Amino acid sequence: MKVKVLIYAFCLLFAYYLGYSQAKIQIVEKQVEVVKYVHTKQNKILSSPNADKSDLLKLMRDNRL
């Protein structure tokens, strides 16, 4: 009886550990994707020319800025 309980408890702990490690992998993958997305957006913003006064006023009138 005790052996069955120990085996069952071990299986539960192993399943918990396996699920926990897979969840950590998914979190790391999502963080890497976010970092890549931020870098691409940042490069796009930095590569664009600076806006002049007329462009900024136009954006303000269109309620986009």
Can you tell me about this structure?
By secondary structure, this protein is mostly helical. The chain has one domain. Helix content is 85%, strand content 0%. It has helices at 2-47, 53-61. The radius of gyration is 26 Å and the shape is rod-shaped. The chain starts with a helix and ends with a helix.
Portion of residues within helices: over 70%
Overall geometry: rod-shaped
Name the beta content range: under 5%
Secondary-structure element sequence? HH
Tags for this model:
mainly alpha; 2 helices; 85% helix
Can you describe this structure in just a few lines?
The protein has 65 residues and is mostly helical. It contains two helices and no strands. The termini are far apart.
Helix and strand layout, with pairings?
Layout: H1 2-47, H2 53-61
